[in-house]
Amino acid sequence: MRSTSELVQNAWNAGTVIPGFNIPYIPMMEPVVRALKDTNSMGLIMVARLEWIKFESGSLKAIRDEYLKVKDENHTRLHLDHVPVIDEDDKRVDFERIIEEAISLGYGSVMIDGSRLSLEENIKCTRIISEIAHASDIPVEAELGAVMGHEEGPLLPYEELFSTGKGFTSPDEAKRFIVESKADWLSVAIGNIHGAISKAKKDMEKPNARLNISHLKKIYDPVGSPLVLHGGTGIGKSYMMEAVSNGIAKINVATAIRQPYEREVSNSVKAAQDAVYRSMIRIIEEDLELSNSATIINP
After folding, report:
1. Which residue, among 30, 3, 188, has the nearest Cα to 110 in the 3D structure?
2. CATH number of 4-297
């Protein structure tokens, strides 16, 4: 079985992308996996710390156990998404313990999020995780800059955020970060934002984000390794395709499948799962054009 590292590398080499799908509610996992199989595409099944703290994914083990029931290794791998050092509520997180637990449970890749730290602290904490994960041949994703949206407080109006470049990844810092942190993949901020997660805002439609592709090129040229785009929901298709042509090898999708589930679950879990499946098919076939990507990424 090819490792997650090999699969992302294959996508990057081929100029295509692996989508990652977040599972904030455990019943979402089955239709996500089924859609990947039915479209013969490759994807990552993901859970972030906030999804067992603020939603209903339960725990790292609960997600792992459900994954073992429905997985298809021709089409899926299990990934640990955002484990922050400082979380969206400005609280310190025992990030080492969480990531070590994920590795022991069999997660194929992990993410440390030090984006709320100084550059030096982000490098230091990411390097700690790289040493732990690489000892088990597990690749590490990290974030430089700040992909906003998860915070409780008010977010800048999107147009102001984009025009000012607030939180954008610094091209000058990116090369140093990758070299010194030993991270394998870099999550970048180039106009993409996360969907809101607070109870008051989680049902709101995301702004139609766009990407600063020239800024992405300035990051990619010195880094020269796979880049990751978080906050994939709501970004125009042309921007997504251009980003993949400029180093993005993994795209995260959460809001586009979470909100359909939440809208339908009061009717029945089955109705909610059907809504997730329909959204998945649209994302794979139309938004990302990834039908049959498994033949390229996982031949």
Report:
1. 3
2. 3.20.20.70
